[in-house]
Amino acid sequence: TILQDGSPFDFSVVMHFVNILSSRTPAELNGCQFLVYKSFGDVIGSYSKWLSSSKSNIKPLLLFCASGISKSISSNSCSVALRKLCEDASSFIHEPPILDILFWISEGMGEGNLRIEDEEEIISAITHALCSILDKELRKTSLARLLCSSYSAVEKIIDIDRDELLRQNSSAYAQALNIAVRGLHRMGALFSHLAMSITSGLIDDDTISVLFGIFWPLLEKLTQSSHMENTSLSTAACRSLSSAIHSCGKFN
């Protein structure tokens, strides 16, 4: 559409389809409809600044992205759209219904259905949104909750040392390792984004200390376990530790 004489673009048709698609359950969607999801994800990512200018659009847009992320066909476009929305709608993020959706998205990634790159993009997007919360305590507790959404994925692999039967089940053990590696990558993405956000002045050393205090005991237990013999796990652990230290170093 070519707009003439500075006429505003009417996004009501886009929002109409967003509401229709996001109200469907995964069972009601087929492959073709997820291709439509992908296309609308691209549109939302491209025009997020205009779409997010209306407060009433934020919740349905986030729910749309959450649904689209769950399928491989549309996961990348909806992950990018989520990042753009978190960047452009930061003034609305502090409201409880919006925070609940963001936490719901982050906590749903423990199933390991997405590419690691998409998971990292999603966590970076949500971290960016949470860093914009003006209330210091709410910001700190929200970031801690986001970190803890990945904490349990790593904690489960440590617990396997006390469950010999699970360790002997090669399929279950491989799945637990994969989930733990993904959890470490998400933690690393969170700390990497914090390192870039510190210059904004919204992230203080107290917040970083709280997050590092959650992260370090877990990593310490992991490094003392036999699972570190796995190359993917040890690489992910070192990467997440490097990101955490880098974010702490910004205050030194």
TrEMBL record:
GO terms for biological process: protein import into nucleus. InterPro entries: ARM-like, ARM-type_fold, Importin_beta-like_NTR. SUPFAM superfamilies: ARM repeat. GO terms for cellular component: cytoplasm. PANTHER family: ARM REPEAT SUPERFAMILY PROTEIN (PTHR12363:SF44), TRANSPORTIN 3 AND IMPORTIN 13 (PTHR12363). This is Nucleolar pre-ribosomal-associated protein 1 C-terminal domain-containing protein. It comes from Aegilops tauschii subsp. strangulata (Goatgrass).
